[in-house]
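INTERNAL TRANSFER SHEET
From: sequence group
To: structure group
Subject: SseB family protein

Please process the attached sequence and return the structure record in the designated field. Keep the field labels unchanged so the import script can parse them.
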Amino acid sequence: MTALDDLAPYPFHDADAPQRARMLSRLADTELAVALAAEPADDRVELRIFPLDAGPVALACDTEDRLAGFFGGPVAYAAMPGRVLAGLLKSGGAGLLVNPGHPSEMLLDAAMLDWLTGALSAAPEPADVRLRLIPPAPAVIEALAQPLAERLGDMRGLIAGAALAGAGNGHVVLVAGADPAHQPAIAKALAETLAFLPPQPGGVDVSFTDSALPAGVLRFDLTPPAEPPSRPKGPPILR
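Return from structure group:
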C-alpha cells in the first residue's frame, strides 16, 4: 500500500468529491514514474501515449515496481512530481492513467488535469488578521480539519503550531513559529490544499504569528508520531 492507496478506501471514480480532491492533492506531491516512448536523450523525454476511447493518456505509477509490473518487465521511465507531469500533459492535451490495477487507480482526462493545474496555481497573499478570533464553525471543522491536519503534518519541523479559527465573516488558518523565509512556501502549500476543498462562506485565509495561539480555536497536533518500540533481542544462538 502506498500513500495514494491509503487515501482510496473506495475507487477514485466512486468516491465523493472531497475524497477525490484529497487524492488529487496528494497526487500533485507524489513522485510518479511515468512511462516513456524511449530512454531519455539529452535531458529530453518523450512520454509514451496510449490511445484510449476517452482520449490519449500517459501512464504513471507511484512506484517503479508497479510500472514495471504493468508492462511485465523493465520499461523506460522518468520520475517527476505529479504537479509537473500534469503541467506537461495539459500543454499536450492528453490525460493521465495512474496506478492501473491498484486501489488508487484513477483515469484523469484533459479537463480534469486542467482543473488540477488551476488548483495548484492558487497562491493568495497571507492575511494579516486583526479581527477578533472566535472558534471555527462546526461545518467548517467537518470540511477542513482532516485535510488541513494531513497537510500541516507534512510541515513538522518547519512550524511550531497551527490552528483554525473564525475571523470576521470567514475563517483563517493561523501558523505559528514559521521562519519568514519559509512563509511564502507554507502559504502556497496551504492555499493549494484549500483550493481542493469545498469553498467556505467568507473564505479561508492564511496568517502567520509569533505569538501563542489563542484559546478557543481548533489547534492541530503536530507532535511527531511515536516510534514503535524496538523488539528486544533474543538470547544468543549457541553453536
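Handover comment: The chain has two domains: 3-120, 133-219. Confidence is low (pLDDT under 50) at residues 235-239.
Transfer complete.
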